[in-house]
Amino acid sequence: MSVLMLGLFKSRPGARSMLTPRRFRSHHGFTLIELLVVIAIVAVLVALLIPAVQQAREAARRTQCRNNLRQLGLAIHNYEATTGCLPPFGGGTCCASPSTNGGYLSGIVMLLPYLDQASLWSSVTAAPGQGGVPFYPTFPHPPGPLPALLCPSSSVPPPYVVPPFGSGTARSYHLSVGDSTWNSGAGTFPNRGPFSHTSGETRRLRDMTDGLTNTVFMGEKALFLDQNDVLGTYLGSSPSSPAACRALATGWTYSGSGVIWGHGRFWADGFPFDGVSTLTIILPPNSPSCTYFSTLTSRHAGGAHVLMGDGSVRFINQNIDAGLQTSPPATLATGPSPYGVWGALGSAQGGEVAGDVQD
Questions:
Q1: CA distances in angstroms from 114 to 96, 238, 341, listed in the order given
Q2: What phi and psi, each to the nearest 5 degrees, are found at residue 53?
Q3: Helices within 270-352 (DSSP H only)
Q4: Nearest Cα to Cα of residue 230 among 257, 203, 254
Q5: pLDDT tens digits, residue range 270-309?
Q6: Which of 126, 184, 262, 284 is the most buried (most CB within 10 A)?
């Protein structure tokens, strides 16, 4: 019986022998066309992703830049509450006789104790003559860049060392001298900004008769990249008007004669008569800069940040109304600004009603 059944099993059509090895189906890899399609898809996704990542990083840098200015605003208010006056634009310690810094020590240096840099401030005050001229190598410079003074959207340039100068490190933020600068025709420099020019005079928050919300205290400037970078440099020349300064640049390169200097090279300098440490509220943001017209600039698209007297931070569009750019600098400390809404935000006692400035 068993033999018969075995015979029947063998005789069935299509029956597989139990002794026959199982056949396996062979597998093939990707074809060249399939690989090319996958690579093309990945390339498209990367091309779409990179701009988004760059935008996210710049948004984070821009937020940090704003926060740095807010911290500087708090430091200014704390300084005024402690000393009874605002720090001078340049000079020595507040409310004292002219210092031994040659009138060059920036008020930003005096804010160090309020920026968690008390030890650095102590090294300045303990040094003979408060360290002396603040852009000499002998000044008590910090060992490296101070993050609180740097906008992360700007790359930090190497220290500027041309004997006898030595800047130590850079800074992005500058105190405003308002909508005025040196008037070569009148031979004057009226103080239309919020800070005193020297430590021999004083300014207080209550002296901002235009209102703290309508007065620019500080702003950023793009740090130096190279000689052909208008945003990060200024031309050492003395044009008679902001329009004449603008005419000295063609595109992103200066076409006028004069030495080209980098912004932010002298972190401790507070000399208000040139473009190294000056911020003038005259030319609109991201315009060229000249010796007496030191413009608000940044690596952000479309404008730059400013700190207002009330501690708020605003982003000023580079297309803001800047009034009559052919007008020479003001000769009086009070009175309306000729430089439109932008100039009105720069004057501390101009008497203007500045228009709304949107972030």
A1: 19, 36, 32
A2: -65, -40
A3: 340-346
A4: 254
A5: 877 667 788 999 999 999 999 889 999 999 999 999 999 9
A6: 284
Query: Pseudo-torsion of CA 316, 319, 324, 327, nearest 10°?
Result: 60
Q: How much of the chain is helix, strand and coil, in % rounded to 5?
A: 30, 15, 60
What is d(CA 330, CA 165) in angstroms, rounded to the nearest whole number? 32
pLDDT in tens, 299-331: 999 999 999 999 999 999 999 999 999 998 888
Return the structure tokens found at 297. Answer: 């600039």
The per-residue pLDDT for 29 is: 67
Cα(50)–Cα(56) distance, integer angstroms: 10
* Preceding amide of 164 cis, omega within 30: yes
Radius of gyration of the chain (CA): 32
Could you tell me the CA-to-CA distances from 126 to 138, 247, 251, 341 in Å, in that order?
13, 46, 47, 44
Contact 216, 346 (CB under 8 A): yes
Distance CA 291, CA 238 (A): 6
Q: How far is CA 14 from CA 5, 9, 17, 285, in A?
A: 16, 10, 9, 88
**What are the backbone angles phi and psi of residue 231, rounded to the nearest 5°?**
-60, -35
- What confidence score (pLDDT) does residue 148 get? 94
**Low-confidence residues of the chain, pLDDT below 70?**
1-29, 54, 93-99, 160-167, 183-187, 198-200, 273-274, 354-359
Query: How high is the pLDDT of residue 4?
Result: 40
- Cα distance between residue 287 and residue 279, in whole Å: 12
172-177-183 Cα angle (round to 5): 125
